[in-house]
Input
Amino acid sequence: MKMLDEADLPPRDRVLYEKLYASANDIGTARACAEYILKKGWHTYSFTRRGSVPIQQTAFTTTLIVAYARPFAAGRGNIDFPKRLLQYDDKEAALHQRLLKLRNQEYAHSDASTISVKPLKGVIRSIQSIRDLRFVPAELKLFLGMTTGLFSRIHERMEEIRLSGS
Output
């Protein structure tokens, strides 16, 4: 057997393997963003910072949310992410739901219900609520803990699929 022989997988298993592979990459990206935000101490709202930090904080926060939520959206092959791999406790499940809601309402789509703008008469044309998000250290540590296990379970499932095609 050559080292580069392809595993003989049924089409559904191949699509699931590809979904899990992409999901692991997304979870890894989200984890790297969380680690960076934690390292930089970006735990206050970005508008309170100076220079290029607000846009950097916004970029890392947005990427964390969108990358984390991507595996749980319908996509490649219309295969859902295997829910049995989540195995979250109540706090982790609540954070998971919060991140998915943030992605769907504020970061990947512009849900008008999350925006508050008041048109004014005169020189100042409008006052709006600022869309800004921050994660406190405890939330980032919870996120890193919950995704460590998830990341491991994804790779274990990928290995099961891969070995089934040997």
